Amino acid sequence: MTNSQPVSSGKWLMIVNPNAGSKKGERAWPKIYKHLEQNGFDFHCIFTEHRNHAIYLTREYIEAGYRNIAVVGGDGTLNEVLNGIFLQQVVPPHDISLGMIPVGTGNDWCRTFNIPFDYKKAIAILKQKKPFLQDVGKVSYFKKEDFQTRFFMNIAGMGYDALVAQKTNQLKEKGKGSVLAYFYFVFAGLFQYKFMEGVIDIDGKTVFKGDFFSMNIGICKFNGGGMKQVPNAIPDDGLMDVTLIKKANKFLVLRYARKLFDGTLVNLPIVLSFRGKEIRIRSTEKIFLEADGESLGHSPFIYEIIPRCLKVIIGP
Fold first, then answer.
1. What kind and span of H or E run contains 253?
2. Rounded CA gap, 302 and 244, in Å?
């Protein structure tokens, strides 16, 4: 940081991802900047330059005194800021107010908390500063030979869900990511995908052993640009919700695709639902992982819940 001046308690840090939403962040920022000024915001803006940059920026600016942070980006940028909040050691995470002006591809976290995609309405919500203490998940996993951890505030996915996220993220890095691209990969890779085999323990009890198609662990309800794969998730109940799609005929998966969006997927006989505070997943082969849309590593996994620890700014 070059600014050594003291930070006022009400000043906002705007972390802008110019590449979010196929460079929508870059295109929208001048209008967002002007509207923030018109609404009397005292703020400093900083742009991310590469993947995981927001993690380091968040830590640095919290250490400099910022306590109000808004993400101008998508779910991936929001996840990076979350991890910056939890990795800094200056103040407890709940001392930071975290808001969002969504300009990303899916903007799924915003859907749970009624934050509009219109930047003017999102800024109005930011100005009202209505707080909500939500749970945060922590997942431990392997990346090559290294055991790593990542915090997440929306949904983590494994199996087919992680494969689709990986392919979509590869397009995003080329500036071509979109919700349509995500859905293309949902269907295009279906018949080349091999089922995963795993053992799932929840709160010390084995609840599943065998082949599965895909699995989601949710703090909130939405992922994949509006799909409701964990429709019963409650973001402040101190529990993680699990939706597991068992091994099934792939034509059957296609037949029920629409149920991904209305939340009735969990009523199907090929779907199992669980809930718990600690989830352990092991497998004989690598199961890959995404969290809040970010492609991470592979199994074995340990999921833990941190109850009501993150102060977020929400809509009505």
1. helix 250-255
2. 16
**Distance between terminal CA atoms of the chain?**
35
Residue 15: phi, psi to the nearest 5?
A: -95, 110
The answer to whether 118 and 219 are in contact (CB under 8 A) is no
Per-residue pLDDT of the chain (316 residues; tens, 9 = 90+): 544 456 777 899 999 999 998 889 999 999 999 999 999 999 999 999 999 999 999 999 999 999 999 999 999 999 999 999 999 999 999 999 999 999 998 899 999 999 999 999 999 999 999 999 999 999 999 998 899 999 999 999 998 878 777 666 556 666 555 566 565 656 666 666 788 999 999 999 999 999 998 999 999 999 988 999 999 999 999 999 999 999 877 777 778 878 888 999 999 999 999 999 999 999 999 999 999 989 999 999 999 999 999 999 999 9
d(CA 32, CA 123): 8
**What does the domain layout of the chain look like in residue ranges?**
12-129, 136-307
- Coil, strand or helix at 170: helix
CATH class in words for 136-307? mainly beta
Neighbouring-strand partners of residue 179? none
pTM here is 0.91
Amino acid letter, 305: I
Token digits for 116?
Answer: 């509009």
Which CATH superfamily is 12-129 part of?
Probable inorganic polyphosphate/atp-NAD kinase; domain 1 (3.40.50.10330)
